Amino acid sequence: MLRLKFDSNLDFQIDAINSVAGLFKGQAKKPFDYTFQIIPNLLDLPQRRIFENLQEIQKKNGLPISNEDDLKEPYNFTIEMETGTGKTYVYLRTILELNQKYGWTKFIIVVPSVAIKEGVLKTLDITKEHFKQVYENLPYTYFPYKSDNLVMVRMFGQDTNLQIMVITRDAFNKDT
Known about the structure:
Blueprint lengths: L10 H12 L24 H14 L26 H16 L3 E6 L2 H21 L5 E5 L5 H9 L3 E7 H5 L3
Parallel strand pairs: 1-3, 2-3
C-alpha cells in the first residue's frame, strides 16, 4: 500500500501557519462552559490588538504595512502561496493550530467547486494519521455539507470537539 509522507517542518509552511495564528495573539483560550445549544468560536480580542498583530506579522514577512482604514469587520485575511506548495495542508494544519492555541472548534471550508471539495476531503483523509502525530491525537471530525443531511449540521454546531465542514460556494450561497 502506498502511503504518503508529510513533512511537518517546512519553514515556509510553518511561517504561514504561525502568521495566521499570530493574528489572534492575546486571545484567551476559553474552557467549555456553554449553556447554549450551539457552541460558538469566541473572539474577544479588541480590533486594535488584531491590527497591531497584523502589522507585526506584515513587518516580519516583509509585506506592505496596512493602515487602520484597511482593517474592518468582518475580517478578511489572505495567505497567498504558489501552486504546489501545500496550501491545503497549511490551512488544514492552521485549523488544528487555532484549536490548540485558542480553543476554537468550528471551521467551515468554503471551496469553489465540487471537485475541489472532494480534493479537500481526500486530503483530510490522507493527513489524519499525520495530524494525529503532530497534534498528539487531537480528536476532530470533518464532513461534506449536504442539504439533505441537516443532522450533521446540527451536530457540527453542538459538538464540543473540533469540527470541520466542507461546503461549496454554491451550496453556501443558496437561499434554502
